[in-house]
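Morning!

This is the sequence you dropped in the shared folder:
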Amino acid sequence: MLVLASVLVFQGYRGMSSGLVSAASQSTRQLSTTLNDRLKAATEPTRSALRILAHDPLTRASSLPERQARLPVLAETLRTNELVTAAYVGYPNGDFFLLREAATATLQERFNAPPNARFLLQTVTQNGETVGEWHFFNANLERLTRQAKPDYRFDPRTRGWFSQATVSEDTILAGPYVFFTTRDIGITLARQSATNRAVVGLDVTLSDLSQQLTGLKLTPGTQMAVVDGTRTVIAHPELHRLMAANDNDGLARLPDLTSPALAGIPEQTLRTSQPQPFRANGQDWFGMIVPLSDLGTDKLSLRLAIPSQELLAGAWQVVRGQALIAAAILIVLLLLGWFLGRRIGQPLKHLAGQVDELAHFRFDTGIDTSSRIREAGELARALSSMANTIRGFQRLALTLNREQRLDVMLQGVLEQLIRVLGRHSGAIYLLDRKTHVLNRAAECQAGHHPEQLDPVDTTTDDETLVDRLRSELGEQSVFSILRDRENHLLGALVIDLTPDDETLDRDLITFVSEVAGSAAVAIETRQLIQSQRDLLDGVIHLVADAIDAKSPYTSGHCERVPQLAEMIIDSARHQTGGDFADFHMNDSEAYEFHIAAWLHDCGKITSPEYVVDKATKLETIHNRIHEIRTRFEVLHRDSHIRYLQARLKGEPEAAAREIRDREQAALQRDFRVIAETNLGGEALEDETIATIHRIGDRTWLRHFSDRIGLSQEEERRLPDMPEPHGPVVERLLDDKPQHLVPWGDRVPPVRPDDPHNRWGFDMALPPYSYHFGERYNLTIPRGTLTPEERFHINDHIVQTIRLLDNLPLPEHLSRVPRLAGTHHERMDGEGYPYRLHGSAMTIPEKAMAVADVFEALTAVDRPYKRGKTLSEALGIMAKMVWEGHLDGTVFRLFLEGGIYRQYGERFLHADQQDDVNHDDLLSRAGFSDQAPTR
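The structure's back. Tokens below.
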């Protein structure tokens, strides 16, 4: 009823709207016809008068008196054509002769005319100079006054109507435009005289078009305008808006009217006969563009915009009346329908409420209803049976889908299935793929089924397998063979019958088979997940073992750090108070952390081994101290040669020996300085650095080419200059251009402004990949690594993140790259590769950092250092906490939870496990009253 009433009201509204729009269209067409008639009335009589004037002697008169003698002709033309406001002649020499009526008070005031003036004669003559005059005449053409107008310098030859008429043999029409003297809007009809010497023109005003538009509005808000082809407005209900702003000679254009509605009428309305809807200035409108008769070269059209609300106001009023009537009828019918429907539908409503309980997954709801409708009772009984079935299947589905552990899932499925079937015992057997033995995986009523069945032939069909199982487990059982999606044998489902069960309902047998199929899929899925997880763990351990095996200096690191990190996290998970009371981690998150911990240094696969194992400052692939020793040997021999040469020259033997021995002793001392510095022990002092440069400045002669026997990489680093002729003087220690190894096209994306840095790394990048300069390496302030080599060491964490980020990790492992790649960050934001502050790091990330540092300090399998004791390692870590390197809360948990002691018992030597003073370490770490001060 509501739809029907709505459709009827809507159709009534559409019919009314269509009628109003059609009426508006018809009214607009009538308006355009009226305007066209007005335009024809303005131009047709004028054309006739103009053809007569073209033959008048006035066109041939050369003096002002001769021309004034023809005034009656012009005056009669003005009297007989009420729309003509001026009649005039323009001469080829620039003379101009114009007569206009000046009878109205407005014109007399504008022209400052004398009383009784009826006509105004405007003349311009060219007698060597331009002379402009105005003559006022009464109705009998008797002159009243004559006024000289020096400023009146009108030249007809410059006007468009003159130039157009001189090249045409017919009457031309110019305009619309603003008249020169009266500032009225009108058109000019002009024609060349019969003698082709002058142009006769008549001005016709169009101001009454605007007055007609004012009285023809269809609604109060209707907007109208007559425009030409250039969108210039020539008629508008408001006359003062016709003039263009800041333009004394031009007409306003359509955009100048500040009327978005008129300007926004779609141009395609020219091709339609009905007003078209459009929207402008936030309001709905109906618009039309109707062509008018031509005035000159530009097409005229009438633009009409009617507010939609005003045009359809009548339709809305009718619609409101119809809606009220329809509403009244609806109320009566609805009351009657409600009374009758309530008597019939109350039982159905009760049943619907019970069904709604089922729809909200409350399958324990009882389904019953008392209804006179037979189908409602049958539906209630069917729904009750369905609810019981769904309730049992729901518990089975939850067990199949939610339980992750295979043994628990199988036990739960078996128990639910036994309960649904109303039986008491059963079992599930799974196949061992290696031995083909069926092992019992789940059982109801223990002791009824053997733990293991003899090996079976996995290639036999299901019927043969069932016969085999029936022979071993008894005839009073229902068997369902479990197979995966590729039909491989997985196991068997056994449901025991009671002695009273001669047969089992066929529907229940089908149900058992379907559940067995679902169980088989769930078993296969969990076995696949477990095998994939085992494979992933195996690959992870393989990578970790490969990294540890790559270098003796990091042996065992990738295996011990994950175990220590997991010990810290397990301790944090079991905290019920303090800083870790709110810390929780489910099994999936723990597994994610486990993988990240094992892969935390996988990027070391890319680290150059000779950099990781660099034990001396001059070491690259080999220790270059041997090259430098050879140079010292050369200088040593040169000293002895100079001694022998002095002897041959007859110099005293004692003096020559003293010089040689002094030089060789100095060489021995200098080499010892170089050799000891090469070890990279304590920090270099400025004096030692100066000594190295002094030693390096010594020279020796090289007689062999240094540009042969080189690899392509070494040749690319040679300076682009010709090889000098030998022997070549070289310094004992030097930093040569070929010692610099550029990055080339393999610049690591670690700078924040690098467009390839999509990981957000923030690390300083050395200008060169390597710097093998001998002085540069020997003057390393501390240790054996240059800044470039230190970057390559640190770059392992960047490579770790990049390698892991490229893996197709599932959603529950998506944080593995972040967890594995932040253990070198510092709490003060000075770490790498992200420069994270402690507030931006999670507890697992902080725990990984603590584990990495402690393992490195206590490792006993590093050949280049001894493993530190517990107290030494924890003392260093306490200082690192104070300096903002490590997190204080994790360090305190590590300390107070005794995790370091558990780790030491598993991995450290007995002599490393000394006593530890917790209070002293916490104080050194900045803890005061159980709260960190830094």
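Headline: The mean pLDDT is 81.

More detail when I'm at my desk.
O.
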